[in-house]
Amino acid sequence: MSSPYSLEEQLNFTLRLFVLLTVLELLNLVTGRQLNHLALVPREIDALGGIFISPFLHGSLMHYASNIIPICLFSLLVMQYGRKVWWQASAFILVCTGILVWLLGRDAYHLGSSGMVYGYFGFLLFAGFISRSIKLILISLLVGFFYGGLIFGVLPMRPYISWESHLFGFVVGIGAARLFVKKVRK
């Protein structure tokens, strides 16, 4: 494992993520959702920037509210794997999920943190078992127990929800666990 973040650093970073997403949500709200034109739109060259921007934007207050706690909590839990793994996994999930949605998603505006949420979810479910660390296996089990119902979000159940971001995020998160988590040496 890479060098760990101290608890203070973890909480500080999580608070900054919360503040960033909240400020962007408020700005988007007061501008009548004008920032949403920066969303990811599959196969539109002009929308490629949405790969990096769309995870920070939300379609409504309810959409924001449904993502803010899981993104902050899961990000905090991924930090238990250390600095390097958090950065690698986060960048990999952000970029690969965005590329897959851009290549394969349906023609719609795709935005919101849920691709990252599902990426972290997939990562956390499998990374503990890959590491063979008791603490990290416990995190995997608790995430599975408390958030296991998220798995149904990878199915195309509602036309206004980017299930593609959920599905690709989840699969990419599992890939990130396989790529970046090493077995803990005793």
Model description:
The protein has 186 residues and is mainly α. The chain has one domain: Rhomboid-like fold. It is built from seven helices and no strands. It has helices spanning 7-30, 50-53, 61-78, 83-104, 114-131, 134-147, 163-180. The relative contact order is 0.16. The model has no long low-confidence stretch (mean pLDDT 96).
End-to-end CA span: 12 Å
Number of helices: 7
Strand content: under 5%
The coarse overall form would be globular
Q: What are the segments in which pLDDT stays under 50 over at least 5 consecutive residues?
A: none
Annotated CATH homologous superfamily: Rhomboid-like
Oligomer: single chain
Kindly identify the CATH topology: Rhomboid-like fold
Indicate the CATH class: Mainly Alpha
What integer value in Å does the Rg equal?
Answer: 16 Å
Major β-sheet annotation: none
DSSP strand count:
0
CATH architecture: Up-down Bundle
The number of distinct structural domains comes to 1
Helix content: 55-70%
Give a short summary of the structure.
This protein has 186 residues and is mostly helical. It has seven helices and no strands. It has one domain: Rhomboid-like fold (Up-down Bundle).
Write the layout of secondary structure elements.
Layout: H1 7-30, H2 50-53, H3 61-78, H4 83-104, H5 114-131, H6 134-147, H7 163-180
Helix pairs in contact: 1-3, 3-5, 4-5, 4-7, 5-6, 5-7
Question: Main attributes?
Answer:
63% helix, 7 helices, Rhomboid-like fold, 186 residues, single chain
